[in-house]
């Protein structure tokens, strides 16, 4: 994006290197670079530094069926989690951040079992014989998953133990009860009695007390008590109240695991009984519930009922400590009807997802605090945001640019007496009060407020239900979703009365309206008063709320237009290549699994189109195969921030065309969700998008290349796209 002449200092920070496509779009100077940013249609040569000579680290293969032209989706996901684990093992990252990456690995695996593995179990139970994209049957995929996840979970916990040992060398130690002296043990006992035991509920199993329900992802102690009238010990379950209490507690200045403190004091909980032993275990359940939306008269009530049913999904994984006796393990398996192949005997700590943050203040062991930049054109003294947007569009690159600008836009709209209507799609909202407060105050002051709240956003259903009820009480028009579809688009429309008539202002983004994740995820926001995009946004909301037929001029909206629009543009590139022209496509998304899009990329490659993509997570396309995909390069980029933005750019015979928005190239996004991909209509902004892609495709620090054989290899070098974006700040 071109810098105004009034900000020469900022403009001077740009690199002079430009992509060929960026020049065609008359883009300004590119981002600062450790080396030349490679043109978007060309491969990047690795810099020959000392780091470049280090051996490449590889993950296990994503191939399930070696004879297939597609990679296995589940294996590809596990390979992604392997790359996250590599960040936890990377000694260039600070120790506390490495522990967070380990926790992310554990959290990712939890969701993988709750949704993907649970889905495979359901397919097998239903007798499904339909092969996956790569030709494997569900039972074959489950075997691969079991083999890989047993190994991965052991390594995740081993990595956590190694990092905790290194933290101990830095003075951050998690103490065990047997390491405390007499005074320390007494202090722990008082803390347990005062702060922990009142929260606990002992549940003994006997003829009058059935085996208790074990909630999803809960940590539990299996307590063996000396039998009263028989030789066999009695079984009791005590839930470790993580969430109510922190997993890591501070007692007398020492850090201790909550379950260790509890296990050492079970005799206090079961007074009059002799406690023989206590063993930790954890259960993962199927949380992927379905319901008949066509039969649901009240979608909100139906989703609430589904959340209640989700709690009782079938167990799909049982984690236990290695010291658990075989008889007790067999008892748990029998009671929860779980296969021995779905039991994970681990050294611990179980539930690494709970280790996201230790209660310590050690900035020297964390990433340097990141302060988002304020956009130079959004810092106004005598002009409101609407005046700014009448003169120019604003492009924001989060988290490098502050998400506060989006919240300011909404708050100004809510307070402005000339604003007549605010319409917004909310998918994952978070709990920040500014967004909810802006919509409530706008509704309470008589503005037309339409909140399209997607109740079916997995694991955020309860929060979204709460928001829906609060906004309805404030007088907003709340739409609870569309039958058969999830609404995943990120769009806000503001209608304002101005001299000469009504003007529409639009925000389109790649990420959710969630200020918390906007500090952790890389996303893009466009604020504009472009009349054509405003008209299309109006069509979108009329379709969502009134099922009116939509006639879009520029937006590509799923499920009806997005896939066809993307394929049409890839086929146009293929025709340019066949005519001998410079044809290329660069893209960035989170997942690539849709067969039709993969086949379209294969056809483009075979025609001679140069395809380069950054795909953070799952990728089922097999690149670099002669005669199929030799012109396709796939990379995965990981780092401090979660790469989340989606960009799709086409060479278009020298007049690049760029789209961005909410849709990954997955069948669920293109067929079963309402998604929006918006064109970048301003040439200088197109140049900025292409500059972003140049920088990310030149990254070395967090980049992995997907090979033809399905193996990801770590790229050598130190150049970091995220570090460059963080240092540079606002796009324009």
Helices, strands, pairings?
Blueprint: H1 8-11, H2 20-24, H3 73-89, H4 95-125, H5 138-169, E1 174-175, H6 182-196, E2 202-205, E3 219-225, E4 234-240, E5 248-251, E6 254-257, H7 258-263, H8 266-269, E7 275-285, H9 299-310, E8 315-321, H10 326-336, E9 343-346, H11 385-391, E10 394-398, H12 404-415, E11 419-426, H13 433-444, E12 448-453, H14 461-474, E13 477-479, E14 486-487, E15 491-498, E16 501-509, E17 521-528, H15 531-546, E18 556-558, H16 562-578, E19 584-589, H17 595-607, E20 610-615, E21 632-637, E22 642-643, E23 647-650, E24 657-661, H18 667-671, E25 673-679, H19 683-697, E26 703-706, E27 712-714, H20 721-728
Parallel strand pairs: 1-6, 8-9, 11-12, 12-13, 14-25, 17-22, 19-20, 20-21
Antiparallel strand pairs: 2-4, 3-4, 3-7, 5-6, 7-8, 10-17, 11-15, 15-16, 16-17, 18-25, 19-23, 21-26, 23-24, 24-25, 26-27
Helix pairs in contact: 3-4, 3-5, 4-5, 12-13, 13-14, 16-17
| Poorly predicted segments | 1-58, 292-297
Q: Structural class given helices, strands, pairing? A: alpha/beta
Q: Nearest-angstrom radius of gyration?
A: 27 Å
Q: For this structure, what is the CATH class of the largest domain?
A: Alpha Beta
Shape: globular
**Percent of residues in helical segments?**
25-40%
Question: pLDDT average, as an integer?
Answer: 87
How many discrete domains?
4
CATH superfamily of the largest domain: Endonuclease Chain A
Function: Catalyzes the reversible transfer of the terminal phosphate of ATP to form a long-chain polyphosphate (polyP).
InterPro entries: PP_kinase (IPR003414), PP_kinase_C_1 (IPR041108), PP_kinase_middle (IPR024953), PP_kinase_middle_dom_sf (IPR036830), PPK_C_dom2 (IPR025200), PPK_N_dom (IPR025198), PPK_N_dom_sf (IPR036832)
Cofactor: Mg(2+)
Keywords: ATP-binding, Kinase, Magnesium, Metal-binding, Nucleotide-binding, Phosphoprotein, Transferase
């Amino acid at each position: 994006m071109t810098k105004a002449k009034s900000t020469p200092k900022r403009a001077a920070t740009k690199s002079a290197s430009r992509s060929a496509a960026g020049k065609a779009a008359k883009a300004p100077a590119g981002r600062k670079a450790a080396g030349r940013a490679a043109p978007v249609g060309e491969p990047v040569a690795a810099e020959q530094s000392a780091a470049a000579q280090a051996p490449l680290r590889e993950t296990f293969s994503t191939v399930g069926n070696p004879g297939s032209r597609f990679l296995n989706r589940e294996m590809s996901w596990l390979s992604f989690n392997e790359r996250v684990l590599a960040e936890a093992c990377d000694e260039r990252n600070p120790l506390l951040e490495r522990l967070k990456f380990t926790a992310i690995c554990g959290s990712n695996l939890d969701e993988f079992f709750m949704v993907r593995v649970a889905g495979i179990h359901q397919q097998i139970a239903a007798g499904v014989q339909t092969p996956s994209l790569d030709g494997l049957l569900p039972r074959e995929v489950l075997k691969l998953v079991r083999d890989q996840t047993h190994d991965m979970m052991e390594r995740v916990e081993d990595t956590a133990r190694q990092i905790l040992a290194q933290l101990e060398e830095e003075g951050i130690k998690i103490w065990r009860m047997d390491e405390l002296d007499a005074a320390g043990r007494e202090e722990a006992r008082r803390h347990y009695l005062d702060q922990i035991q009142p929260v606990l509920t002992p549940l003994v199993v006997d003829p009058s007390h059935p085996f208790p329900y074990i909630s999803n992802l809960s940590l539990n102690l299996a307590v063996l008590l000396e039998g009263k009238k028989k030789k066999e010990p009695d079984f009791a379950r005590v839930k470790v109240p993580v969430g109510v209490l922190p997993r890591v507690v501070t007692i007398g200045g020492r850090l201790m695991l909550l379950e260790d403190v509890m296990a050492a004091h079970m005799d206090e909980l079961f007074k009059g009984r002799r406690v023989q032993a206590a063993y930790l275990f954890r259960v993962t359940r199927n949380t992927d519930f379905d319901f008949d939306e066509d039969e649901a008269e009240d979608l909100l009530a139906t989703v609430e009922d589904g959340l209640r049913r989700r709690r009782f999904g079938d167990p799909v994984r049982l984690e236990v400590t290695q010291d658990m006796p075989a008889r007790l393990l067999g008892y748990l398996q029998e009671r929860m009807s779980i296969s021995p192949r779905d039991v994970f005997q681990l050294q611990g700590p179980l539930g690494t997802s709970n280790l996201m943050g230790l209660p310590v203040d050690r900035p020297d062991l964390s990433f340097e605090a990141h302060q988002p930049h304020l956009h130079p054109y959004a810092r106004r003294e005598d002009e409101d945001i609407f005046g700014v947007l009448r003169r120019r569009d604003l492009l924001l690159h989060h988290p490098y640019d502050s998400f506060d600008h989006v919240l300011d836009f909404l708050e100004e709209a809510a307070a402005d007496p000339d604003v007549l209507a605010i319409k917004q799609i909310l998918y994952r909202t978070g709990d920040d009060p500014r967004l909810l407060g802006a919509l409530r105050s706008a509704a309470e002051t008589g503005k037309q407020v339409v909140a399209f709240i997607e109740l079916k956003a997995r694991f955020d259903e309860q929060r979204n239900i709460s928001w829906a009820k609060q906004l309805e009480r404030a007088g907003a028009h709340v739409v609870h979703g569309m039958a058969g579809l999830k609404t995943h688009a990120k769009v806000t429309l503001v209608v304002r009365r101005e001299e000469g008539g009504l003007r529409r202002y639009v925000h389109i983004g790649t990420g959710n309206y969630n200020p918390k994740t906007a500090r952790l995820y890389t996303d893009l926001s466009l604020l504009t008063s472009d009349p054509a995009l405003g008209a299309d946004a109006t069509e979108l909301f009329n379709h969502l709320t009134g099922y009116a037929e939509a006639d879009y001029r520029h937006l590509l909206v799923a499920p009806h237009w997005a896939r066809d629009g993307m394929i049409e543009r890839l086929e146009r590139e293929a025709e340019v290549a066949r005519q001998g022209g410079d044809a290329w496509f660069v893209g960035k998304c989170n997942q690539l699994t849709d067969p039709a899009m993969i086949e379209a990329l294969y056809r483009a490659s075979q025609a001679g189109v140069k395809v380069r993509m950054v795909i953070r997570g799952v990728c089922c396309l097999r690149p670099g195969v002669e005669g199929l995909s030799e012109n396709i390069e796939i990379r995965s980029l990981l780092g401090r921030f979660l790469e989340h933005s989606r960009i799709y750019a086409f060479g278009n015979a020298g007049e690049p065309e760029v789209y961005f928005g909410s849709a990954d190239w997955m069948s669920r996004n293109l067929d079963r969700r309402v998604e929006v991909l918006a064109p970048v209509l301003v040439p200088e902004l197109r140049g900025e998008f292409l500059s972003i892609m140049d920088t990310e495709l030149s990254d070395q620090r967090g980049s992995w290349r997907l090979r033809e054989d399905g193996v990801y290899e770590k790229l050598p070098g130190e150049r970091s796209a995220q570090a460059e974006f963080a240092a540079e700040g606002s796009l324009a």
